Amino acid sequence: MKQQDRLEAIITGPEYWTLEEICDASKLLYKKKDTPCAMSARWRNVEESSTVIKHKRVREGTKRLYEYRIEVKTAANDTEEE
Questions:
Q1: List of domains in the chain
Q2: Is the Cβ–Cβ distance between 57 and 71 less than 8 Å?
Q3: How confident is the model over 55-69, as a mean pLDDT?
Q4: Which of 32-65 are b and which e, b meaning 16 or more Cβ less than 10 Å from the residue's Cβ?
């Protein structure tokens, strides 16, 4: 599994992750030692589309600690009620 694939697998969903947390998860789940710099570069490579949305924010209680997540919209997300 490539570094880009690991990043996307880890941060896709409702939870926000710091770069350090992403690296820790990569080590735990995939036995790969990724660096925060490398994961930051992979984050910049994530391509947004109508179904893939990148979210980035400053972690509450900090001034410059960013956290990231990817939201994937599906057809079920688009229709709230029928």
A1: 3-74 (1.10.10)
A2: no
A3: 97
A4: eebeeebbeebbeebeeeeeeeeeeeeeeeeeee
* pLDDT score at 81: 46
- The span from the first CA to the last CA of the chain, in angstroms, equals 39
Cβ 20 vs Cβ 79: under 8 Å? no
Average pLDDT over residues 30-54: 96
Distance CA 79, CA 82 (A): 7
**Confidence band for 74, pLDDT divided at 50, 70 and 90:** confident
Report the alpha-carbon distance of residue 65 to residue 16 in Å, rounded.
12
Q: Number of C-alpha atoms within 13 angstroms, CB side, residue 14?
A: 0
